[in-house]
Amino acid sequence: MTEVKPGFLLRDLALHGAAFFSGFITMALEMMIGRSFIPYFGGTIYTWGALIAVFLIGMTVGYVVGGRMADRHPHGRIVPVLFFLSTFAVLFVPFQGEAIINLILDHVEDLRYAALLASILLAAVPAALLAAVSPFCLRLLLDRQDHSGTVSGRLSALSTAGSIVGTLGTSFYFIPGFGMRSIYFVLAGTTLLLSVLLFLLIVARGRATGAAAVAAVVAGIAALAPPAPARAAEIAVLLALPDGELERIDSEYNTIFVEKRGSQIGLFFGYRRNRYTESVIDLHHPKALAVAYTRYMTAALAFHPQPVTRIALVGLGGGRTINYLIDSLPGASADVAELDGAVVDVAARYFGAGPTERLKIHTADGRVFLQRTRERFDLILLDAYRGPFVPFHLTTQEFYRLVQERLAPGGIVAQNVEPTTMFFDSAYATMKSVFDQVDMIEAGGNIVLVGYAGPRLTDEQLAAQAAAVQARDRLPYDLRELVKARDEVGRVGEPTILTDDFAPVESLHTIERHNEKRR
């Protein structure tokens, strides 16, 4: 048996490790860039399709070019050089990505092609550089090993394993636990550290030179973790905070902004340089509903003449509506399903919407929560907008049937819908295909759709019910006034009924209700 020298053993281990980490960083970067795109292009199938395609193209180029270079220049020093160059390609995204995306949005109207162009400019180079690592590793290992099939299979398996760890680690742990910018810096620091280590193990073959540089890189990566945000609590503490942006949080689902203007604190979700209002609290009047549609969501109480005791809400936001209902209805309790744990945290810290004995908050997808619970609710509120979009699976016939199953006899569902695009027509038509009646309440620019069983209430019947409920519950926002916003909203053309099989909500959101493209 041929004796393996220690230097070659270290080199071979390093080459196998390089294959693993090239896959790890590639997929971690893909998840990160995809998450960074959501505030600008939305989390649509177009965005992810464009990004995945560009990564695959970049990797294809990297495999081909890397393979040719490995045959012409089979030198171990090129592997650390590839990781070194990848460091700058990764850092390019947090430093120049936003400016590039904004420039693209200024000149490309169609979000599909805007996302594709942004993917090419930001993702193609790092994907190609990292993909070129594996051909070099294979070429160098085959210099000393005869079992080419075994070596090739092992390297492919290690690279794929790295991709799996990078995908799950980034989506399950890194993005939920750390700021996006810090994760980019850690990925860049990792590629830089790998370039140094691989140089020592492959080129210098284990000599201890450069240990100080490695230690410095490790210390630099550790220093990148940002301090935890300050915890706000009491009204007096919140009032004392300076005006302006209090926090920006890049969660796994949203780009969240918390801003203070005078006595008001607002929760906003970012998308395409716009900030969409989710909740506002006036610290001088903390029980008031400052956003119009949240007041009109409570008009659904008028459709339920019996006392409401069980409420479900899908989409917490700042928790203003559910807090109002819990405060106003002493006999009621509520369950809230909010997918984004960062939203739950912000709602508790700035808007006083933490869990209580009567208010349970579940960090879960709204549809999954309703599927798992066996409770029946008198009132189910749907307010799961992420910026301008509603997740498609919360808009389909199958979802509304699930909602219907979770309603107690005589139960009511109310959904907040933005009315300017063809999505509104489809949302209305889909809800109407499940519920006997769907009424519309004008809500300060939005529409609240109210679904219920039985014959349609006349205006006189609804007014009488509103008066009776108002007299019994003495609600701060008078139901008799709120139901006056009931309206008939004309529909354009033949709307698409949304199903789990076919729910083109992304394209419907781009078409104005008068058949004009949204800009």
UniProtKB/TrEMBL annotation:
InterPro entries to which the protein is assigned, alphabetical: MFS_trans_sf, PABS, SAM-dependent_MTases_sf
Residues in PABS domain copies: 334-469
Family to which this protein belongs: Belongs to the spermidine/spermine synthase family.
Active site: 383
Source domain of life: Bacteria
Name of the protein in question: PABS domain-containing protein
Organism of this sequence: Zavarzinia compransoris
GO molecular function: thermospermine synthase activity
Biological process according to GO: polyamine biosynthetic process
Keyword tags: Membrane, Polyamine biosynthesis, Transferase, Transmembrane, Transmembrane helix
Transmembrane spans: 12-33, 45-66, 78-95, 115-142, 154-176, 182-203, 210-228
